[in-house]
Amino acid sequence: MSATIPARSTQTGPDMQEALRGGTLSGGRKAKNHVASGLMVLAFLAAAIPLVVMGASVVSQGYRAVLSGSWWTQPIPETGRSDLANNQNLSDLGFGTPSDAGASSSVVLGMAPAIVGTLLTVLGAAALAIPLGIMGAVYLHEYGKNNWLAKFIRFMADVMTGVPSVVMGVFIYTIWVLPRGVDGKSAWAAALALACLMLPIVVRSTEEMLRLVPDNLREASAALGTHTWKTTVKVVLPAAIAGITSGSLLAVARAAGETAPVVFVIGFVTTVNASFSGANTTLSAQIYGQQQAGGVLAQDLAWGAALTLVIIVLALTLIARRISRRFELS
Amino acid sequence: MTTYDHNDDTQTTTDSTAAAISGEAVTMPMQLAPPSAGIDSAERQGNAVEPESLPKVFNLEELQVYYGSHHAVRDVSMAVCANQITAFIGPSGCGKTTVLRCFNRMNDLIAGARVEGLLAYHGVDLYSAEVNPVEVRRRIGMVFQKPNPFPKSIYENVAYGPRIAGIKKKSELDDIVERSLVQAALWEEVKNRLKASALGMSGGQQQRLCIARAVAVSPEVILMDEPCSALDPIATSRIEDLMLELKSEFTIVIVTHNMQQAARVSDVTAFYSTEVNPDGDLRTGLLVEMAPTVDIFSNPSDELTEQYISGRFG
Questions:
Q1: Residue A193 forms part of a structural domain
Q2: A225 to chain B nearest CA, in Å?
């Protein structure tokens, strides 16, 4: 190999210029560098392709429904299974015939009940899980530290993070819905299931944020004669608030997209039900339900619901990133 | 005055507030523990009337500090007198900071730290069961090695302690903030930007802000843990001047690596050293010698002290 370390004293003027440009590197090293760079670009493209294809298909299939003026305000039109009891409508909707393309244009497309239901369940879940999760994390990091209870809670939170979301649905179905019979299925039950899902995420992300608050701030506060709880409220939480907010919003975004725990416990409606009691529906439940129903109209509704959900989650994520960026600057 | 409104009649309220707060500071040590607890309080008053000796604020007897099973400092006996600057010097790892952090029970915040022996504050054992560390820290403030202002405004940093102590009135807080910043020789530099973030100040300003923050709760004692080690010589000299001014109102204990600093500012110097344990490489700190600063630097009685201050070890 010609690539030996050149003696220092020999490099002056143009030689040094050439050396600093990399002219003395061997061809083999340059080639390896190019190959490695190329492989990394390929790997990135391979990772990006599914994302782009998925995004493109959701947008291209869903945009008509979402852009129709009635989408955000009107009830969900009856399709598939939901109107099996009312068979006459089927022909009106163009079901059952192979040439039912374009049938949805004669129907008022709407998804308002699911949008309301999604906001309701997610806000309910957030109101349950975020305060509880933050207080739990404060206990873990400011009080429990490494005692047996804190270690146990931390372990259980990790285990809960790994529990499949459908298990949370079954759990709430068993302890909340079944005892209440037909009235049990409600947005509140879905909020409970989602809260179970969010709680460990909020606890662990908040604890990480509290860990980032330097100990010397706690010491400074303690040295002024401050109780731990007041130090936590006045110094630690304000210093970590942006990180806690963005962590919590990511948990909210994740809960908004959950399907399995929701379809178990929420029931089914096609009109807006802006209350926690009584059957309700969410976007994720609609995606699942309409896809099961079959037919062009139902497919349009499912794609539209998917795009709506992506938009809502994207909005939440952007808000979370905006807040966390402010956090990084300070 | 854009961010901080004060008018001419604040001067009178400043005086009355100062009186109220210093009055409070005088009576507070008595509330530290029930009268039955601790050592005879008459002894303290007896000290106070002796003209030639200053009242003792701290009295340490055979103080031992452990971190877990590690015996970090052993057998420290000393007295710290009121309105004096007491300096702790010694090589790294000799336990000066550890002892300092015992004075306001900051070591309580470190898991596994344990203290034995007597550490009395005005005759009350600070480590007896009925003493509340939060009350201790209200009377014994601390300034840390690295400036650690809260990520809040300058005003809120200084007002933090008084607010915690229950002062809510805006005018009263304004007075305390101004008085504390004046005492910390910072008022002129920041009076027009009290609402600005404290994190935008220079290191020296931040450290003076931390002193103002400590002064704002009118403690009796201010502990300083190498307060100038992160500062340049000019900022250091400002802090040293400040210490000499604060001496009339506060008792100051300072840990320093800088022997010249100890010689310049302190009245009494305590020299610590380390001994290597035979059964491991963990070292135990101990107090070698404590004497008036002039004596320590001109005529040390211990060989080790003489070697350290003349630069032959440490």
A1: yes
A2: 4
Phi-psi bin for A20: left (phi > 0), alpha (psi -120 to 50), beta? Answer: alpha
**Chain B nearest C-alpha distance from A227 (Å):** 6
Count of structural domains within chain B: 1
Checking if the pLDDT of B205 tops 60, the result is yes
Most A-contacting residue of B140, B160, B215 (CB-CB within 10 A), to test interface: B160
Full domain range(s) for residue A191: 113-329
Q: Is the residue at A199 inside a domain?
A: yes
How many independent structural domains does chain A possess?
1
Give the C-alpha separation, B99 to B105, whole Å.
Answer: 10
> Which of B281, B270, B155, B283 is CA-nearest to residue B212?
B155
Handedness of CA A260, A266, A269, A275 (dihedral sign): negative
Rounded to the nearest angstrom, the minimum Cα separation between A220 and chain B is 7
Q: What is the pLDDT of residue B213?
A: 92
Structural domain contains residue B5: no
Q: Confirm whether B36 is domain-assigned.
A: yes
Range of the domain at B112: 10-47+54-309
- Cα B37 from Cα A95, distance rounded (Å): 89
User: For tokens 């994302």, what's the residue?
Assistant: A51
CATH of the domain at A125: 1.10.3720.10
Q: Is the pLDDT of residue A313 over 70?
A: yes
Q: Which residues of chain A are within 8 Å of residue B135 when distances are taken between CB atoms?
A: 225
The CATH number assigned to the domain holding B111 equals 3.40.50.300
Name the nearest CA neighbour of B246 among B285, B220, B275. B220
Q: A-chain residues within 8 Å CB-CB of B142?
A: 219, 223
For A20, A189, B83, B97, B151, the CA distances from B145, given in Å and listed in that order, are 44, 53, 22, 10, 17
Give the sheet arrangement for strand B85-89, strand by strand.
Answer: B124-125, B113-121, B56-67, B70-81, B283-292, B268-276, B85-89, B251-255, B221-225, B140-143
Instruction: Closest CB to B106: pick one of A223, A238, A330.
Output: A223
pLDDT range class, residue B160, cuts 50, 70, 90: very high
Q: Is the pLDDT of residue A86 over 70?
A: no
Tens digit of each residue's pLDDT (9 = 90 or more) over A32-73? 999 999 999 999 999 999 999 999 999 998 888 888 888 888
Does some domain include residue A49?
no
Q: Which of A146, A223, A239 sits opposite B141 (nearest CB)?
A: A223
Q: Which chain A residues are Cβ-neighbours of B148 within 8 angstroms?
A: 214, 216-217, 219-220
- Per-residue model confidence (pLDDT) at position A4: 62
CB A300 within 8 A of CB A64: yes
Tokens linked to B234: 């000019």
Q: Which two tokens stand for residue A52?
A: 């782009």
Chain B residues whose CB is inside 8 A of the A216 CB are 144, 146, 148
Domain membership of residue A100 (yes or no) is no
| Residues of chain A positioned with their CB less than 8 A from the CB of B138 | 224-225
Nearest CA among B235, B149, B116, B97 for reference residue A220: B149
Kindly calculate the radius of gyration of chain B based on its CA atoms and give it in whole angstroms: 20
Q: How far apart are CA A53 and CA B241, in angstroms?
A: 69
The alpha carbon of residue B162 is apart from the nearest alpha carbon of chain A, in Å, by: 9
Q: Of A145, A226, A330, which is closest to B151 when you measure between CB atoms?
A: A330
- The set of residues, in sequence order, having a beta carbon less than 8 Å from that of A231 and lying 6+ positions away, is A142, A218, A221, A222
Q: How far is it, in rounded angstroms, from Cα B2 to Cα B19?
A: 28
Residue-level pLDDT at B52: 43
